[in-house]
Amino acid sequence: MAMRIPPIQCLLTFEALARLRSVTHTAEELCVTPSAVSHRIKQLEQLVGMRLFGRSDFSLTTKGSEYLSHVREALAMLERFPGRNPALSRRKLRVAVTPTFARSILMPRLRQFTSAYPEIDLSLHVNIPLLDVVAEDADLTIRYGAGRYADLESVCIMKDIISPLASPAYIEEFGPFRSVQDLQNAKLLRSPLEPWRTWFAAHDLDWPEPMDGSSFNDVGLACDAAAQGLGVALVRLQLAQPWLANGSLVRLFERSIPSPHAHYLCWRTGNMDRWECSTFARWLQESLQQDVSVAEAATPQRVLTTA
User: Fold this and answer.
1) Any idea what DSSP says for residue 194?
2) Is the pLDDT of residue 266 over 60?
3) Distance CA 106, CA 280 (A)
């Protein structure tokens, strides 16, 4: 006997209700009545022979969550079918991201994502929590910190190491920098995002946080300033890759230390039930993990010193 496949309208309703967790919002999205939503869910549960939603808040049962992943995969395949009207299947995704992470990490990879998932319209918005610049309507947020954020779920996506960087011209003029003590007379560029006390403490130096000199609230601006010869910047090396790659910045010392914080992908409870959110999160984690593996096998960055 042939297997009976549930009607597509039931599957669409199930996916929407699992994502929106509201009969009213689901009905509005699908342009049907709330009673039609309830009828379709009841029909689907009868066809598959199991309860899909466990409570009145429309949280999924264990089997319902498993079935949802199959339904979304099947719907995504249908959306990609040649000849479809692209405007009818597009998904909107708003991602808030810190400026230098966007420029150094995300933008170089973004074409991979848009090529793999052309049905997702991705919007990037600047997010600087330290300065209370926050994109409140974002579906996903990339933050740098300790990973404990009120009312948000999170996953660590990238750890980093920090090291002092300067331009070759600055090192030539004010070097050599053979030991950390040589930084005592250097112009140290300051940033609240990466305080020098972390570096000093790791080297058993009882030096105070610099109070004088130029200060920058963006890692990219600090790198640009150091590349112009304004001083030495303490920077996370993965974020500094564009400057290291073109030679405008070099490391002063071979030793680096772990950054006390990391980059986290954050979201409000329920957002990962949306296919576009979970797809972006999975892609970003896999992309960063692949690059970490490549970086570990690569030759370390050169260190420039003067005689």
Assistant:
1) S
2) yes
3) 12
